[in-house]
Design a protein that fits this description.
heterodimer; A: mainly alpha; 2 domains; 0% strand; globular; disordered C terminus; B: MetI-like fold; 13 helices
């Protein structure tokens, strides 16, 4: 028997457990049958039907708008937080940045719901969703930026200052170019998190605005149709390419080290 | 040291690469004990130095304040509100009752109360749901450990080149949407007649949280010194003995941190019980969701959220303590 035979057998079993369900979703999205039961024949009809689904298209547009706004703001604030945490070692900021990432999502969802309705007395919608997404994305960006800065030679920044650069010049000409891969990875990461978020959005969306995950949720709750397979397949392709793109800029993100 | 190097650097300023090298060299020759951005005041520093320090303070303020203010407003404050709301009366039409007697309808409950807490501890149905949530989370964690261990061990013992790919393959399914991963199991479990059962809930929970166990476990196993196993082999220990006496005890910190990463989110998860479980399979997360969105009993929902937070904090503390005491021992 080859070395590690049982380890290999068990590992392949686990990989199958991870991938077979997703493969089934993709496969049935091309199945020419309204039931997710048996393979009938190949079709792209569900995608055509999806492209004509106005609710779904509206939800996708909302998701895109929310993700673009939220990840842009989160990248700016998260980069600031990351630099501040690395440079000044503040006591409170790391707690504020990490906790929203570490606690169960539902807690952030209900506390923001309470805050928006009770204190601000506002109608829930695009604004509340964007704010909520920024809140949980800042932490991810800050962690990536801090990890990137941690491996850097401090004397570079000192040199810039000694040469008479203002703090802004130092940032613009030295710090930013060095952390840029981290900034891009942070942006892609928060974009993906925002597009994908269901739990927190579920609480702060209110009745008027639907995002892609909320739309999928209501479809699954009512009935399982191959249209869900099609939209799932497309969303998987999108997040997959985002994650792979992010990993090009900050390879550590995918190694669980960031 | 500042004075002596600035002359040579000023001359060579046009070449940033060179000046960078120079300053790096200087840092090595004169290692500075103070953080770079707050240099100790040098003797006889002039007005320029003071202005520069003021500028640095301004920079610090300018980059620390925006994220801090944002998170105070949209994370800390809302969270404190939940704590406060758990001591309020429910409103007549949902939400919260007014805090001041003047604003309330006559004869209605206003102000602060411990009523919600009394209600919670006096009613066994809530305790039951909490216990069930802990059981589901515990079972999920256990199955995750059993499934993740061989994977993490094999990755750690694979050639370096192959490791990144194998880790990536564990993370990739995690990149697809939570609902899609749950939906996949609706398709699979439906024909097997397992849908809407407690089994379906546990399968879904394991599926969604497995990467959280593999990663910390792999990070731990990767650091083990192979010389330990070789020494054990030389002393005549067989494969099982080597695993149980060396690898497993050394991997306990990884198991603990992985367990915290699986157990905690499972406690708050409401989507999986709702989509895969039956009516009797609701967990704490569903209970909280119901209070905020269906019953609109915000004080009860807030109180349950506080209970969940306390449980999470206790568990996170426990896991950190266990991992640390293990490490100290090893």
């Amino acid at each position: 028997m080859p070395r590690h035979f049982w380890l290999w057998a068990a590992t392949l079993g686990v990989y199958a457990f991870l991938y077979v369900p997703l493969a089934v979703v993709v496969l049935f999205s091309f199945n020419d049958s309204a039931l997710n039961a048996a393979w009938v024949g190949f079709t792209t009809g569900w995608y055509v039907k999806l492209a004509r689904n106005q609710d779904m298209l509206g939800a996708a547009l909302n998701s895109l708008l929310i993700a673009l706004t939220a990840s842009t703001v989160a990248t700016v604030l998260g980069t600031m937080a990351g630099i501040a945490m690395h440079r000044y070692r503040p006591r409170l900021l790391p707690f504020m940045v990490i906790t929203p990432v570490a606690m169960p999502e539902i807690l952030l969802g209900v506390s923001l719901l309470l805050f928006f309705r009770q204190v601000l007395d506002m109608t829930l919608g695009l604004f509340s969703i964007v704010v909520a997404h920024i809140t949980f994305s800042i932490g991810f960006v800050a962690i990536i930026i801090r990890a990137r800065l941690a491996g850097m030679d401090e004397s570079i920044f000192e040199a810039a200052r000694d040469l008479g650069a203002t703090p802004w010049q130092t940032f613009r000409r030295v710090t930013l170019p060095l952390i840029l891969p981290g900034v891009v990875a942070g942006f892609l990461m928060s974009f993906t998190l925002s597009i994908d978020d269901f739990v927190i959005t579920f609480f702060v969306a209110g009745v008027g605005v639907t995002t892609l995950p909320l739309q999928i949720y209501s479809m699954i709750k009512v009935a399982v149709t191959p249209e869900v397979n099609a939209v799932s397949t497309l969303l998987m392709a999108l997040t997959l390419s985002m994650i792979l793109l992010a990993s090009r800029f900050a390879p550590d993100v995918l190694k669980g080290k960031a | 040291m500042r004075g002596c190097s600035s002359v040579s650097e000023a001359e060579k300023a046009p070449s940033p690469a060179l000046s960078r090298t120079l300053s790096r060299l200087r840092a090595r020759v004169f290692p500075s004990p103070t953080p770079v951005d707050s240099p100790a005041p040098l003797a006889g520093e002039g007005r320029g130095e003071r202005a520069r320090r003021r500028q640095q303070d301004l920079t610090k303020w300018a980059i620390t304040t925006p994220p801090f203010v944002f998170l105070t407003a949209f994370f800390l404050l809302p969270f404190l509100l939940v704590v406060a709301a758990s001591f309020r009366y429910p409103g007549e039409f949902g939400g919260l009752a007014p805090l001041l007697p003047l604003l309330g309808a006559p004869g209605k409950d206003v102000g602060l109360t411990l009523e919600t807490y009394r209600f919670f501890f006096g009613d066994l149905t809530y305790a039951e749901i909490f216990i069930r949530s802990f059981l589901v989370a515990g079972l999920t964690t256990l199955i995750c450990i059993l499934l993740a261990y061989p994977v993490a061990l094999l990755i750690a013992r694979s050639p370096k080149k192959r490791r990144d790919l194998m880790v990536l393959l564990v993370i990739l399914p995690f990149a697809s949407n939570l609902l899609i991963r749950v939906y996949a199991w609706i398709i699979i479990l439906g024909p097997l007649n397992l849908l809407y059962t407690p089994y379906a809930v546990v399968i879904g929970m394991v599926y969604v949280h497995l990467p959280f166990m593999v990663l910390p476990l792999y990070t731990n196993l990767e650091k083990h010194d192979p010389a330990l196993l070789e020494a054990a082999q030389d002393l005549g220990a067989n494969g099982w003995t080597r695993f149980w006496r060396i690898t497993f005890p050394l991997s306990l910190p990884g198991i603990f941190s992985g367990s915290a990463l699986v157990f905690i989110p499972v406690l708050g998860m409401f989507a999986i019980p709702e989509l895969l479980g039956g009516t009797g399979d609701i967990l704490v997360g569903n209970l909280i969701k119901e209070q905020f969105l269906d019953n609109r009993d915000w004080p009860l929902g807030s109180m349950l959220s506080i209970m969940l937070t306390l449980a999470v904090l206790a568990l996170a503390g426990l896991a950190a303590w266990a991992a640390r005491s293990r490490r100290g021992e090893a």
